[in-house]
C-alpha cells in the first residue's frame, strides 16, 4: 500500500472516530448528558489537538524547513481559516451564528461549523503522510482520531440538547467527520507532487488547527461554570498526546 492510499485511509478512519464517539447517545437517555460532560470532552479534545499541532506538525516543519517557513505557514493557515469562517455561514452551539447570511436549516449550519473545524484536521493527517514517514503519519492520525471521539460525543450531545433525536444526532455527528478524508487526500497529494510544499503545508495545517482551537473549541467550553474543569481536561489531553507522541512517534 503506497503512502497516498495509506494517508487517505488514515484520515478516513480518523474522521469516522466522530461516529464512534457519538455511539453512546444511541443507548443513554437525554438526562445522562450534561453541559458539564460536553465541556470536559471538548476540553480534552482541545488538549490533544494542541499537542498534535506542536509536536507532530510544527516541530517537524521547523526541522525540515526552518523556523521562518513554519512562521509563514502558521500565519497563512490561520488567515485562511479566518477567511473561511467569515464567508461560510455556520452556527456554533454556544457562540451562535457566524459567516454570511443564508436560508439553510439550523442543523446544516451546525454541520458546516464542525466541517470547517474538521477539514484542516484531515489535511494535517494527509500532510504528515507526505513525508513518507509512516510513523509520524500514524501518530498524527491517532491524535486526530483520539480527539474526534470526545468531539463526536460532544457534537451529538449538543444536537440532542437543541431538540434532535438520538439517531439523527448520531448520524450528523458521523457526517461531520467525513470531510476529513477529503482534506487528507488534498494534503497528501500536494506534498507528494510538490515536495517543497511539505514544511509549509505542515505549518499551514498547524496554524489552521491553532486557529480552530483558540477561536472555536476553547470558547465553546467557557460559557458556563465549568471553565476550570475544562481547562484541566485540556491539560490532561495535552499530556496524554504529548506522552503518546514521544513514546510512539
TrEMBL record:
Database matches in InterPro entries: ZIP
| Cellular localisation | Cell membrane
Report keywords, A-Z.
Answer: Cell membrane, Membrane, Transmembrane, Transmembrane helix, Zinc
> What residue intervals traverse the membrane?
6-28, 40-59, 65-84, 104-120, 140-162, 169-190, 196-217, 229-248
A Gene Ontology molecular function term of the record: zinc ion transmembrane transporter activity
* Keyword presence, Nucleus: no
Annotated Gene Ontology cellular components are: plasma membrane
How does the UniProt record describe the way this protein sits in the membrane?
Multi-pass membrane protein
- The organism's place on the tree of life at top rank: Bacteria
According to its UniProt record, which protein family does this protein belong to?
Belongs to the ZIP transporter (TC 2.A.5) family.
Q: What is this protein called?
A: Zinc transporter ZupT
Q: Which organism is it from?
A: Atribacter laminatus
The top of its lineage is:
Bacteria, Pseudomonadati, Atribacterota, Atribacteria, Atribacterales
